[in-house]
């Protein structure tokens, strides 16, 4: 684990250092063709990213995942401060989350990335526990394939 | 972290089976009950039900108490509700993405001095 991890009730914060200039780290999130090279889990065979990179703009990263087929990760950019910050809302299966990515230049060629994810699928878990299993389950299984 | 990931995968493999999901569903309605009562609607032998219960127990999705020769089973909602499991899931996910980003960024600046 190279990242520093902070966890609270429904928030996950991960901090990671990159040996690269801030503009480059930011570009990895801004430009579709760059994002396609690193997005998606190990079972992801192909990522096709479409982004309207501006506040209010929408994005969709379509992943071809082995064993699960084609799955979209879609959302909307809420805030963009180039090259410092990206805030977006995204849904994937039963999950709705707000994700904030901050890019901090700690030294020339060294960038600290802070990712904060708020929102976890507690209602889905409750749904499973109290019945209404199957629909939620299909979603969870798909989700698992994505993140395994 | 590894233990948490393992825990999470044990939860999900336990829940991947429709019979085990029905067992949990039935437990959530019945509350604590005896294995024989729990097994009633299932067209299965008791040993087959017991195997399913064992998987659920290992995933900490159910609890078992012994009352003489009878085993009392109840659902353990904490096993599912714990948001930490999901967070762990995401920690693993993002860590993997950051590793991939790291690789890509290194390829982009091959002239950069190696960090110590």
Structure description:
The complex is a heterodimer of chains A (148) and B (116). Chain A is an alpha+beta fold. Chain A has one domain: START domain (Alpha-D-Glucose-1,6-Bisphosphate, Chain A, domain 4). Chain A is built from 4 helices and 8 strands, in the order E-E-H-H-E-E-E-E-E-E-H-H. In chain A, a hairpin with a 3-residue loop joins strand 5 (69-81) and strand 6 (85-92). In chain A, helix 3 (122-129) crosses helix 4. The longest helix of chain A is centred in the last third of the chain and has 15 residues, at 133-147. Chain A starts with a strand and ends with a helix. In chain A, 21% of the residues are buried. Chain B is of the alpha+beta class and 116 residues long. Chain B has a domain at 2-80: Winged helix-like DNA-binding domain superfamily/Winged helix DNA-binding domain (Arc Repressor Mutant, subunit A). Helices cover 65% and strands 12% of the residues of chain B. Chain B has helices at residues 2-15, 18-30, 35-39, 46-58, 78-81, 83-108, and strands at 33-34, 62-67, 70-75. Chain B has a 3-stranded antiparallel β-sheet. In chain B, 26% of the residues are buried. The chains are: A alpha+beta (148), B alpha+beta (116). The interface between A and B is large, with 44 and 42 residues.
What does this entry show, briefly?
The complex is a heterodimer of chains A (148) and B (116). Chain A is an alpha+beta fold and 148 residues long.
């Amino acid at each position: 684990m190279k990242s520093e991890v902070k966890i609270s009730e429904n928030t996950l914060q991960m901090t990671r250092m990159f040996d690269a200039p801030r503009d480059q780290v930011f570009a990895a999130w801004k430009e579709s063709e760059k994002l396609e090279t690193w997005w998606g889990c190990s079972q992801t065979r192909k990522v096709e990213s479409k982004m309207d990179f501006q506040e209010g703009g929408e994005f969709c990263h379509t992943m071809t995942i082995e064993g699960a087929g084609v799955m979209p990760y879609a959302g909307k950019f809420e805030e963009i401060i180039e090259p410092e910050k990206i805030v977006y809302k995204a849904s994937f299966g039963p999950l709705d989350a707000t994700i904030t990515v901050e890019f901090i230049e700690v030294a020339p060629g060294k960038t600290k990335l802070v990712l904060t994810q708020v929102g976890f699928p507690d209602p889905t878990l409750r749904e499973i526990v109290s019945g209404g299993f199957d629909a939620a389950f299909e979603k969870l299984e798909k989700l698992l394939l994505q993140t395994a | 972290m590894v233990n948490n990931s393992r825990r999470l995968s044990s939860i999900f493999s336990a829940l991947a089976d429709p019979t085990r999901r029905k067992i949990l569903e039935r437990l959530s309605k019945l509350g604590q009950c005896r294995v024989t009562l729990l097994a009633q609607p299932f067209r299965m032998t008791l040993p087959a039900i017991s195997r399913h219960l064992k998987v659920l127990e290992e995933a900490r999705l159910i609890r078992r108490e012994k009352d003489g020769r009878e085993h009392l089973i109840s659902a353990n909602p904490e096993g599912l509700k714990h948001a930490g499991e999901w967070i762990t899931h995401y920690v693993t996910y993002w860590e993997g993405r950051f590793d991939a980003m790291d690789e890509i960024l290194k390829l982009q600046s091959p002239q950069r001095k190696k960090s110590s």
